Fold this sequence. Notes:
- By secondary structure, the chain is of the alpha+beta class.
- Helix content is 37%, strand content 25%.
- It has helices at 17-30, 44-51, 81-100; strands at 34-36, 53-55, 58-61, 67-75, 104-113.
- Strands 1, 2, 3, 4 and 5 form a five-stranded mixed beta sheet that branches.
- β3 (58-61) and β4 form a beta hairpin.
- Mean pLDDT is 81; it is low at 39-51.
Amino acid sequence: MGRKRKSKIEGELSFGAEFFSELAVQVLKSVPGARMRSFDHGGGLIARLMKGISHGGVNVRSTGDPVIYDVEVSADPMRNLHDLGLEVQKKLRGLVKRMTGRNAVVNLKISGSS
């Protein structure tokens, strides 16, 4: 019988904030009644870079564990807003954990209904 060799993997695996932002967009598109809102960045590109990466109504800080999301949505007034919020939070946390092994904190603001 041959001996098994231990394989060494060198290098670093990291995920960009843009990647995490795209995960949030996917989740928001999958939740019925949730619509993305836009943040007012005030100050342009420099302010955006200092606050984290934004994609519409999603702001992400991914420099540590957990990944921290600030998500702003408007909601269909026919949906139970509490249930909608919990669904977005649960789906996003689960997707981040499943795809990256990292934890996520999802701060969700429902800023209106339409």
